[in-house]
Design goal:
By secondary structure, the protein is mainly α. Helices cover about 60% and strands about 0% of the residues.
Length: about 80
C-alpha cells in the first residue's frame, strides 16, 4: 500500500473510531475488536465518494461483473 494511502486510512481511523467520542478500551482484545469492526464498516458500509458513493466491497463486485474477459489467441 502506498505510504500516503496508509497515512490517510490511519487518519480516517483516528478521526472516525477514536477521536469522535470513541470508547475507552479496557484491554488489547477490546482494541483489536474495535479495529476489526471499523475495518468491516469501512469496507462494507461506509460510502466512498471517490468510487461513486459506494462501499468498496460493492464497487469491487460491480467492477468484476463489468469486466469482460478477452480470450488469448492460440499460437499455431
Amino acid at each position: 500500500m502506498d505510504n500516503a494511502l496508509c497515512e490517510s486510512t490511519i487518519g480516517l481511523f483516528k478521526t472516525e473510531a477514536i477521536d469522535d467520542g470513541g470508547p475507552t478500551w479496557s484491554d488489547r482484545r477490546a482494541v483489536e475488536w474495535q479495529v476489526a469492526r471499523w475495518v468491516h464498516w469501512y469496507n462494507h458500509d461506509r460510502l466512498h465518494s471517490s468510487i461513486g458513493n459506494l462501499p468498496p466491497v460493492e464497487f469491487e463486485h460491480h467492477h468484476r461483473q463489468a469486466k469482460t474477459v478477452t480470450p488469448i489467441p492460440e499460437v499455431a
